C-alpha cells in the first residue's frame, strides 16, 4: 500500500482522532514503569476498541480471560509485571460472608483466608466494605458488595444509592438482587430500569444480577437473564443463598447459553465441595460464590489417591470379582 494511498491517510487520521479524543477526555496514559499500580484497580476500558493495552487482563479482567479460555484459547499473553495470577478453582471464587450477625472479627478472618488462597474477591454487606478494602489492599483480591440484599424489593433509586456508596467505599464489584415482584408481575420495564440504574451508579465496578432462580419459572429465568444482558450487567448469578434452592447445573447451562461469552455467570447457593464447583465450571460458570471456599480449594488441590491392591506381590490371594447377577425375568420388581 502506497504512503499516499487515501485509505492509509484515512486510517492515520482516524487513529489521530481517537488518540486526541482519549487525551482530551483526561484518560490516564499507561506507563510501562508502573504496571504493579494497575494490579489493584479494576479495568474501566470495557470493549476492545477502548483498550489501553496495559497487558494485565489476567489480573484486572479475569472473567473476560476465563470466557476466552472457555471458548478454546490455549494461550493468553500478559505484560511484564503481571506477577502471580489466580490459578485453579480459587481464582474463580467469591469468598462470601453475608450473615446478619457477622462481626468485624469474622470479616478479618474472611480477608485473611482470601489473601492466603488468592480468591477472586470477598463478598460482604456494604457496611463492611471499608474494612475489607483496608485489609485486602495490595493483595489483588477484589471487594464485592451486595445491594438490595437479600429480597431485592427496594426502589431502584435506593439500590442505586447503596451501590454508589459501596463503590465510593472501595467495592470493585456489586451483586444486586433482581426485583422478583416486578418480574412476576410482568412489569419488565421496571426490572430493566432497576438493573440499569444500579449498573450506571456502580461504574466502573462490575455488576452481577442475582436472579434467585429457585423461585422462578423457566420462562421467568429466560426473561430475567435477557433483561440483565440488555440492561448492561456484567454477570448473571443464581441465588442469594437465603432463598429457595441454589445453583444447579441446568440453570448455569441456561445462563451461559443465553448470555454467550460476553458476560460472566456466577454459581451461588449450595456449592460446598470441589466436585460441586467443577460441575458448575463445566456447565459454564466463570465465578463461584461460596462460604465453604477453603474446603472447596483444599478439595481440588488434594491429589487423587488410588487404593493399592491388597496382596500386590501375591495375586493368587486377591479376591476374585464376583460375577454380575443375572437379572430375573419374572417376579416382583424391587422397591429400590
- Sketch the major β-sheet: 8 strands, parallel, barrel
How much helix is in the residues? 25-40%
Distance between the termini: 76 Å
- pLDDT < 50 stretches: 26-36, 322-336
Number of strands: 8
Strand % is: 5-15%
Q: How many whole angstroms does the radius of gyration measure?
A: 24 Å
How many distinct helices? Answer: 12
- From N to C, what is the helix and strand string? HHHEHEHEHEHHEHEHEHEH
Report on this structure:
Helix 4 packs parallel to helix 5 (129-136) and helix 6 runs parallel beside helix 8 (188-202). It contains twelve helices and eight strands. The protein has helices at residues 6-24, 57-60, 62-70, 104-117, 129-136, 156-169, 180-184, 188-202, 218-230, 249-259, 274-283, 293-301; strands at 93-97, 121-125, 142-147, 173-177, 206-210, 235-237, 264-268, 287-290. The protein is α/β, with parallel strands linked by helices and 336 residues long. Residues 26-36 and 322-336 have low confidence and may be disordered.
